[in-house]
Every structure is written in structure tokens, then in C-alpha cells.
Amino acid sequence: MLQFVWCTLRSQNVKGIKCMSAIDKSLIVPLAKRKYNRMVKYLNQSEAINIDKDLFEKYRFSVDQLMELAGQSCAVAIARSYPLLLEDSSSRVLVCCGPGNNGGDGLVCARHLKLFGYSPEIYYPRRTNNELYQRLLHQCIENGVPILENQCIEKATDSTVLHKYAIVVDALLGFSFRPPVREPFVHIIDMLKSTTSVPICSVDIPSGWDVESGPPKDGGIKPQMLISLTAPKMCASKFNGKFHYLGGRFVPEKLESQYNLNLPKYTNTDFVVRLQ
User: Fold this and answer.
1) Is residue 26 part of an annotated ligand binding site?
2) Which residues are 233's β-sheet partners?
3) Where are the alpha helices (DSSP H) in 58-207?
4) Domains contained in the chain, number
5) Is 204 annotated as a binding residue?
6) Which domain holds residue 177?
7) Where do runs of H (alpha helix) occur along 85-183?
8) Is residue 64 a known part of a binding site?
9) Average pLDDT over the chain, rounded to an integer
10) Residue 118 domain flag
11) Residue 27 pLDDT exceeds 50
12) What is the pLDDT of residues 95-152, one digit of tens each?
């Protein structure tokens, strides 16, 4: 069984959150597990789109159903790798949400983090009138999750405004994104690229990365955590951070077989499985 030790970030303290890492990955972490991970299929953009289409049309999942499962998985993965310290139950998390499904996952994640005892705040620079997203935003507000004024981030001259947060969740741009980054996301992504003191947790795709080729020439965002949803995308092979999880335990066996996904098995009732 994989053993863990507790380490702390930023001189033994990350604003009330601990970081979990594995003992000597070359030893106790099973080689078979890493070998298995190499066989997991990494999806290109068209495959990711087609799988979503099949989930909606063939298997009759609704968008909000998958979004709830995906966002909850993200919150579980974050809580697992950055658990709250007992003496500090108010760790602040900035959840940056875009206008699409990735942003919807972020809104769900923020709500569940609040239920887990964190203190999330939402930065939502481009809202949508879509009724689903309006409901998700309303649920966050009713659960006491603050929605930041856009100017709080947009008027910041550098990334120091992020230093008051223990974690930043990047749920801005998903696998349908095609470079380059456009407004109103340029400033926040530049801030995320320049920060080195706050762990970034990217949902499915690090914002600004190409879904297949990975980070842009300037390096792009370097998240400490990546939470792949449904199945990892090709860009995840370029991820060099500490934690890589697979979330969204909803893929039917027939669909997995059809696309030869070879997904790892989830343990017991877990919502996530660690790939790295």
C-alpha cells in the first residue's frame, strides 16, 4: 500500500493547508502502477469532443449532471492533496472560472470546497446568461461563496494579489480552447504564469495550453496539480507538476471500450484516482 508523509510548503506552512507527497517514488510507489499509467489513453481534441457528444447523446447524460460529478471530483482531489490543518479551518482558495463547461466545473468545485470547510472566492471575468450557469452561480452565493469584483484582479499590477490565497483553482479554459489567449483572460493568465508562491490546480487543461501540444512557447501556466476529467488529454503528457488526478467517475464501460481508454480503476467509492 502506498505510504505518505506530510510535508509543508512555504517554510513549513501554506496558509493552513498541508501538502501530501509520496515517500521515494522509485521505491514504495509500485512500478506496475506507473507502467499502467503509461497505457492510459491520452485524448486528442476531436476524441475529447466526440466522447462528450456520446455521453450526452448516446448515454443521455445531462450537462449539469456531468458538471456536478466533475466539479465534485475536483474538490475531492484538492482536499486530498491540500487538506486543511486542524488549527486553521479558513484557508482561502481563489477559483477562477471561465464562461464554458470548464468554468461550470469550477463553480461546482467552489461550492463543494465550501462544504469541505475551505473559504473559496470566485473570480468570474466573463459571465454567461445561460440558465445552468446562473443556477450554479446562485448556489455558490447562497452557500456563502463570495464573488469578486472583476477589478480586484484586473487592476492588480502583478501577481502579489494572489499571495493571500493558499490555492488558486484554474477553471478558465477547457479542451475546446484554441490559442492564443484572448481578453478578458490575458491578465489573469499572465498573473498565474508569473506566480511561484501559490499552488495552482488546473481543471482538465491548464489554461492557455493547447489541448494536444501542451504549453505555449513562453512556458505558460505551470500548475502544481492537474485534474484530468473523463480521461487525460494529450497535453497532460507535458505536465510536470506534483499531483495528477483523474476525476469524473461516470464513464460507462462500453464507452471506455469503444475508445480504448484503459482507465485506471477507482478504489472503493473514491471519486478520483491519482495518476502521478
Assistant:
1) no
2) 43
3) 63-81, 101-115, 131-142, 151-154, 186-194
4) 1
5) yes
6) 45-268
7) 101-115, 131-142, 151-154
8) no
9) 85
10) yes
11) no
12) 999 999 999 999 999 999 999 999 999 999 989 999 999 999 999 999 999 999 877 7
